[in-house]
Design a protein that fits this description.
Layout lengths: L2 H17 L26 H8 L1 H8 L3 H15 L9 H27 L9 H9 L4
Helix pairs in contact: 2-3
């Protein structure tokens, strides 16, 4: 092997090594946050309220008196207790939180759909999407 060929191979090797990405990408799927509020129980329970009730329902509960809130939570707890043994297990609570979050997502999708389906035909054309999203005039 001649010196120019050796230098060329060495240069290509250095180039390949230096061009390798150094940033490691996160390949783990993380669960979405249950609330956009800070999770600090020492300060407030807003995060827990959003996670447990869903964002819209939590806003409603904020406006209730303590007695009304307690009564409503009692009704919700009976829904969470799937096996009706009088206790809420961790699995039942997790299932309820997932249910509450999915319900919020489906309601939000429905709300977004109605906002974009300007002619109310059940379909969203590109023109309807542009008009609803970017404010173009029909």
């Amino acid at each position: 092997m001649s010196i120019p060929q050796l230098l060329l191979c060495l240069s290509l090797s250095v180039l390949c090594i230096s061009s390798k990405p150094t940033e490691k990408k996160d390949r783990v799927h993380h669960e979405p946050q249950l609330s956009d509020k800070a999770h600090d129980d020492a300060q407030s329970f807003d995060y827990d309220h959003d996670a447990f009730l869903g964002a819209d329902e939590a806003k409603t509960f904020d406006q209730l008196t303590p007695e009304e809130s307690k009564e409503r939570l009692g009704k919700i707890v009976s829904k969470i207790d799937e096996d009706k043994d009088g206790f809420v297990t961790v699995e039942e609570l997790k299932a309820w939180i997932k249910f509450a979050q999915k319900r919020w997502i489906y309601e939000d999708v429905e709300r977004q759909w109605k906002g974009h389906d300007l002619n109310e035909d059940g379909l969203i054309s590109w023109e309807e999407y542009k008009n609803a999203t970017y404010g173009y005039i029909l």
